[in-house]
């Protein structure tokens, strides 16, 4: 069974930073394309950032502010979020799928089969 658990969400002021973590169990995420998605109430799911060993993708809305990374030894993927705005408020989910999918494909075209439960990020004064 593939299992993903997100953590690190919370309340942050505009302009602040958060680092989200996603730890995998039951599989090695080093062999998967991994990604971060978010969904705000009343809005469609957005692929924020996806990555594998060959390519990395960032949505235009977060480019230059967010960074995706992974620590294979810890089987964990991170999303460093800087210069946060209220528009970044959402539930953030990590996901994984076969590495045959390029990062841009995972973030923009597919519905990954494995998801975490999500972590709430709220950006507000």
Could you explain how this protein is built, in words?
The protein is mostly beta strands. The protein has one helix at residues 103-108, and strands at residues 3-7, 10-12, 18-25, 32-39, 46-51, 56-58, 66-71, 76-81, 90-98, 114-115, 119-123. Strands 2, 4, 5, 6, 9, 10 and 11 form a seven-stranded mixed β-sheet that branches. It has a four-stranded antiparallel β-sheet with strand order 1-3-8-7, with no helix packed on it. The longest helix is centred in the last third of the chain and has 6 residues, at 103-108. 35% of the residues are buried.
Can you give keywords for this protein?
about 120 residues; four-stranded antiparallel beta sheet; mainly beta; globular; seven-stranded mixed beta sheet; 1 helix
Helix tally equals 1
What structural category characterises the helix and strand content? mainly beta
How many strand units? 11
Mean pLDDT: 94
> Which radius of gyration do the C-alpha atoms yield?
13 Å
What characterizes the major β-sheet? Answer: 7 strands, mixed
- End-to-end C-alpha gap: 40 Å
The oligomeric state of the chains shown is single chain
Order of helices and strands: EEEEEEEEEHEE
Question: Which range best describes the helical content: under 10%, 10-25%, 25-40%, 40-55%, 55-70% or over 70%?
Answer: under 10%
Overall shape: globular
Strand residue percentage: over 45%
Task: Provide the low-confidence segments as ranges.
Answer: none
């Amino acid at each position: 069974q593939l299992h993903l658990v997100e953590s690190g969400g919370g309340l942050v002021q505009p302009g602040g930073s958060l680092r989200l973590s996603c730890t995998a169990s039951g599989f090695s995420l080093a062999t998967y394309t991994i990604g971060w998605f978010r969904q705000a109430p009343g809005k469609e799911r957005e692929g924020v950032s996806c990555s594998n060993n060959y390519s990395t993708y960032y949505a235009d809305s977060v480019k230059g502010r967010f960074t995706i990374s992974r620590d294979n030894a810890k089987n964990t993927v991170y999303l460093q979020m800087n210069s946060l705005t209220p528009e970044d408020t959402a539930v953030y989910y990590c996901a994984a799928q076969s590495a045959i999918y390029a990062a841009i494909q995972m973030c923009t075209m597919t519905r990954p089969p494995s998801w975490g439960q999500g972590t709430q990020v709220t950006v507000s004064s």
